[in-house]
Amino acid sequence: MRPEVLYSLFAPVESLPGIGPRTVKAFQTLAGPHVVDLCWHLPSGIIDRSYAPKVMEAQPGRVATLTVTVGEHQQPRSRRQPYRVRCHDDSGTLDLVFFHARPDYLHRILPIGETRVVSGKIEYFHGWPQISHPDHIASVEEQDTIQGVEPVYPLTAGLTLKVVGKAVRAALAQAPELPEWQDFGFWRQQGWTAWREALLAAHAPQGEDDLSALATPRQRLAYDELLANQLALALVRRSQTRMKGRAVEGDGHLRDQAIAALPFALTGSQRKALSEILDDMAAPHRMLRLLQGDVGSGKTVVALLSMLAAVEAGCQAALMAPTEILARQHDATIRPLAEAAGVEVLLLTGRDKGKGRARALERLKAGEVKLAIGTHALFQQDVEFQDLGLAVIDEQHRFGVHQRMSLQSKGRGVDVLVMTATPIPRTLMLTSYGDMEASRLTEKPAGRQPVDTRSISLDRLGDVVDGVARAIEQGRKVYWVCPLVEESDKSDLAAAEERFAALKTRFGARVGLVHGRMKAAEKDRAMADFKEGDIDLLVATTVIEVGVDVPSATVMVIEHAERFGLAQLHQLRGRIGRGSERSSCLLLYQGPLGETARARLRIMRETDDGFRIAEEDMRLRGAGELLGTRQSGFPEFRLADLAVHGELLAAARDDAKLVLERDPELQGERGRALRVLLYLFERDQAVRFLRSG
Ligand code: ADP
Ligand code: MG
């Protein structure tokens, strides 16, 4: 239960004065549903209003705050002309200018003969100073409402700075004093203030420096967020390892048969990863391990051999993939090898319905099949296993902790192996997995050629198409990946269909198309025609991003490569260079390129080391965020910026660990304050792992 002291922060945003039915949606998009979300909405800029000259001294182009006496109101003579309110001080006259004015309103806020404090940008018109649409108009008594340095907030359609600023102030007014959850020594050493003070200070920047993620109040808030994150992860992890695990240890007879059926020898890193996994499974605790390896590094075989070890020990094993295509592909790779060891494989996806599905579920429950492969269909509620010993999750960033745990709950002490194809930088790894054990496949299988990567301007599309034609003549298979046009499937699709139609006029029936909106069966057919049939050139949206394996494909064209992220480009490129043939990747870009896009393309040309790409990706994205280009939506961290706060993260990790050693159930004074922290950052789930108190 959320502590009472936080109630005001978790009131709905629309409970704040100034947020009504017309703007509530916009506020939810901008910040989030609760008052606390507005507290986390930190300023991205400032307007300095401390410049307070006499009218005649006011410099054009500067924001000024002036105290004036209101004179005549001048109605415009035509609708195109503005309404003017002539004001003055003892040095001269200043016009306040309003387009589309409502005279009754202006008479109310600017009564003739009264003194008013106005603030806005000074312009000169026909030699006279004026301010059009002043940002602030206040009476002398109210002049304190005009801040000397006004924070500027990121906005969204339908909300002005005035409205957002007011709402944030109202939200801050509801922020309570909270008990201190920081370690006193660390807190003092950092020179931090109490939470509420830090929050107010972060919203009251006095200069540009105060906007930096390194400003003291912002650091404290970021640390709070990171500490909540690390503490929550540590609690989840502790609850998992506390749950009784079991020792799963096979005798190797199935693995030997599968290995004998492999057309290749395992790489050194595959063998090492495998032995780490098997040791972990054989230990009496629960395994929770990450298998990291670049695209094409051979994770599937490692997964299969681990699963066979579970089957040897008499348990069942399941592999869960994020998409239907991937599940089928894993099935195609694994089935022949498993069968060579005499182990039957059951495939279960969303496409299985009715009787077939019911039969499959019965067999799983009865333990008639030991090895299951599937999509999320595998962890639906009615799926039961006779005795699940190992769950392998091919994660590709798509499953959350929650799903991971629901598969785990399908058996007693299930060991879990999570596979990710995108190497994750150390910092990100910490924030999303905590101190999870990891095995890394750093070696590429033998015989792989590096991919020759070039970037070419879209202006040279004609040359590129000629090049594709030559490649096809040489019997090569070509992917043509179409751009993300906005964040919608629809426009992606239109772009892909257009390119498909254009290429068809040249290449006829040798061109195929695959996109996310096709039915699964159509998609499979298109992929199969490309892999083994008459299709040589496959136009695709990013559906091919995840693990599809066509070793004969050796050319990839990525159109509007500048629109893709680095990790995504790397994933895409991983589709080629899988066989022993030399492969090439053409990154088609539309100039002029922004700095970040240019850097991305350069890194892609320079390296295909996934671990380096992952680090660079984070660095670039972090920089983007610093510049305030963070996309709307809900980023994982509201206050911490991993590109800048890496050290705070490491400190938070150690802090969380130490706290739980000293006060495992968070019942001491600091412990109780930390519970508030967990609720503040909406880690309510984690609190459930604690004894109440
Ligand atoms: P990942 O899932 O890591 O992207 P896969 O497991 O799909 O990679 O393997 C990619 C390809 O490499 C597959 O065709 C697989 O059969 C092959 N492969 C795996 N291990 C080796 C190896 N040790 N030597 C040669 N080829 C391998
Ligand atoms: Mg794979």
Automatic annotation (TrEMBL):
Reaction(s) catalysed (UniProt annotation): ATP + H2O = ADP + phosphate + H(+); Couples ATP hydrolysis with the unwinding of duplex DNA by translocating in the 3'-5' direction
All copies of domain Helicase C-terminal, residue ranges: 463-619
Keyword vocabulary terms for this entry: ATP-binding, DNA damage, DNA recombination, DNA repair, DNA-binding, Helicase, Hydrolase, Isomerase, Nucleotide-binding
InterPro entries xrefs: ATP-dep_DNA_helicase_RecG, DEAD/DEAH_box_helicase_dom, Helicase_ATP-bd, Helicase_C-like, NA-bd_OB-fold, P-loop_NTPase, RecG/Mfd, RecG_dom3_C
Domain of life: Bacteria
GO biological process: DNA recombination; DNA repair
Keyword Chloroplast: no
An example Gene Ontology molecular-function term: DNA binding
PROSITE patterns documented for this protein: HELICASE_ATP_BIND_1, HELICASE_CTER
Enzyme Commission number, as recorded: 5.6.2.4
Helicase ATP-binding domain ranges (all copies): 280-441
Keyword DNA repair set for record: yes
Family: Belongs to the helicase family. RecG subfamily.
Function, in words: Plays a critical role in recombination and DNA repair. Helps process Holliday junction intermediates to mature products by catalyzing branch migration. Has replication fork regression activity, unwinds stalled or blocked replication forks to make a HJ that can be resolved. Has a DNA unwinding activity characteristic of a DNA helicase with 3'-5' polarity.
Protein name: ATP-dependent DNA helicase RecG
Organism the protein comes from: Ferruginivarius sediminum
